[in-house]
Amino acid sequence: MVAGESGLGKSTLINSLFLTDLYKDRKLLNAEERINQTVEIIKHTVDIEEKGVKLKLTIVDTPGFGDAVNNTESWKAITDYIDQQFEQYFRDESGLNRKNIQDNRVHCCLYFIPPFGHGLRPVDVEFMKALQDKVNVVPLISKADCLTPAEMRKMKDRVREEIEKFGIKVYQFPDCDSDEDEEFKQQDRELKESTPFAVIGSNTIVEVKGQRVRGRLYPWGIVEVENQSHCDFVKLRTMLIRSHMHDLKDITCDVHYENYRAQCIQQMTSKLTQDNRVESPIPILPLSTPDVETEKLIKMKDEELRRMQEMLQKMQQQMHEQDL
Amino acid sequence: MCLDTELCEQPASFAMIFCSEEMRTLSLNGHVGFDSLPDQLVSKSVSQGFSFNILCVGETGIGKSTLMSTLFNTSFENEEASHFQNEVHLRPRTYNLQESNVDLQLTIVDTVGFGDQVNKEESYKPIVDYIDAQFENFLEEELKIKRSLYNYHDSRIHICLYFIAPTGHSLKSLDLVTMKKLDSKVNVIPIIAKADTISKSELQKFKIKIMSELVSNGVQIYQFPTDDEAVAEINSSMNAHLPFAVIGSSEEVKIGNKMVRARQYPWGVVQVENESHCDFVKLREMLIRVNMLDLREQTHARHYELYRRCKLEEMGFKDTDPDSEPFSLQETYVAKRREFIGELQLKEEQMRQMFVNKVKETEAELKEKERELHERFEMLKRTHQEEKRNLEEKRRDLEEEMNTFNRRKVAAETLQSLQGSSAIKKDKEKKT
């Protein structure tokens, strides 16, 4: 999933990451149309193959996030979507035929932080806090060609500080085993120290020293996307696709999904003990939205029961008094 | 000086012809010397000094302070603002600059916290309020009885630089809303900040998109004036480059053998004053070297006049009567005063009424209370009397009992004494 304000280079980055062109015919909204924009969720699914290994990639885009003038609750649509995917998986898992479960759960959320400010903004903090328990949040500093190396270091330190200050739980790289070789450990350390990654995306190919690479052409120089000294794009790609893809999936499965499942089941059982309806069978699947009609019926029956109980009590009392 | 009263009563056009006939152009026979008037003006203005007020509107961290430092080639010390302000507030700072014996009193007003809140619907209000407040101050000074406009420090905003974030797509919704609110109050010049993020081709598209959005939404940004021939050409060519894409820098880098303001990247060096890198030089030219005076005049002649007109109309002043005869200010004043006194009297009446009502109410309450007290008193008296009667009865009963008891006692005593005496008699009889 990619999230962030418009114009931060999300689509360009996705294209660069997977070397495809997903966003060919996009229609961008004008400013006046965006004043009261609501957040939409758009899914793009591609099947890519490399050396016989197939990957079904789903990119979930969130156009409209942060665009409106009033952005309170703009992350609700996104959290709802993530919950929906979890719910879908939950039902599939508890169903009868479990062979072909499609895993549509969101494994990773790339959050784009604008480089124009001095660090995190309130909307960034709120969004990441809302999502930290549902999905692996990977913050990125977008459009990194806006900051000089010194400014970049300051910005990264700032963002890391603020993440700690606000207690945001972003995705942490797993520590490598102690019996791995030094080079690997070194790589791992470097990786961890350069979070959040500062990335640049590009849709155009430029020629640098006889080579054709993805880059951005400026009058004062050429920024190469895959040059490690220019930006952290390579690190991000390595992390996302080559080394940590499995870890992201595992954490989604083991941590976030289990949290959701536990919460769900707890909710179900607490509802049951409230209702006192022992005669009904324990539902296996959580009924997320019971029909309005059945709810009404249930309420009516509850009322009747209560009334009958009261009458019973009264009669008992009367009998008691009569006995006396 | 003109004509006698008879002629003045004739229709205005007639008098006009007379007047124009009076003014004839004559040629001079020698050098008089009033061609030094412009020089006198210049020396007076220089000694008086100039004031210029800039308002910078833009998100936190977008480079407002850096650009100001670059523009005026000094460093205005400004701490970085935090992103977590609850609302927008404005921070005016005044500096005195001097360049070859011309004094400039520069006021830079910064918007702190703009664009940071989650709900930005009220973001434009503090800015509009500030601008209006400056106009209000000036208006007040103008309307004072003892005024000193000569020495008045003009704090009205002459220009608003609106910093657009370089997303590359279009304006943000917040930008559009804010600029619409500001365009009728101040000269707005939009600029694209941090322009080193956008490549040349993207920049072209971005500028066109921005201008078309501004036009389609009816936002009136400041156009450089093209009436004065001296600057018309350069101004009209600059108008085509709006909005300017600028870069600011507080650091200097050595290029060739000069130290220039620039930003150093691993892939190259962006020079601020290089025309092919960004439009900074254009902005400086336009803003300071060519059109500064025009900006001040526009502020006074257009924006301030608009404000003044609205304000005075609000207060009830009109230029023409319903009968479309020119109103004199004096009559308006007198009429207003009468109105005001009338209102005051009404209010007085109302207050008096209220007072009287209140008095009546309290009187009624007091009477009620009196009556109640009376009643209670009566009741108490009655109970008291009853009790007294009861007590009397009881006393009488008690007395009767006592009497009966006494009688019995007496009777018993006499009986005893009789018995006693009879016993003695018996004894006596026995003895004899």
Automatic annotation (TrEMBL), chain A:
Gene3D superfamilies: P-loop containing nucleotide triphosphate hydrolases. It comes from Culter alburnus (Topmouth culter). One of its GO terms (cellular component) is cytoplasm. It is found in: Cytoplasm. Signal peptide: none annotated. This is Septin-type G domain-containing protein. GO terms for molecular function: GTP binding. Keywords: Cell cycle, Cell division, Cytoplasm, GTP-binding, Nucleotide-binding. Residues 1-267 form the Septin-type G domain. Belongs to the TRAFAC class TrmE-Era-EngA-EngB-Septin-like GTPase superfamily. Septin GTPase family. It comes from the Eukaryota. It holds the Pfam family Septin. The record marks F116 as: Important for dimerization. GO terms for biological process: cell division. Its main location: cytoplasm.
Automatic annotation (TrEMBL), chain B:
SUPFAM superfamilies: P-loop containing nucleoside triphosphate hydrolases (SSF52540). Residues 48-314 form the Septin-type G domain. PANTHER family: SEPTIN (PTHR18884). It comes from the Eukaryota. Keywords: GTP-binding, Nucleotide-binding. This is Septin. Residues 383-398 have a biased composition (Basic and acidic residues). Residues 383-404, 413-432 are annotated as: Disordered. Belongs to the TRAFAC class TrmE-Era-EngA-EngB-Septin-like GTPase superfamily. Septin GTPase family. GO terms for molecular function: GTP binding. InterPro entries: G_SEPTIN_dom, P-loop_NTPase, Septin. The lineage of its organism: Eukaryota, Metazoa, Chordata, Craniata, Vertebrata.
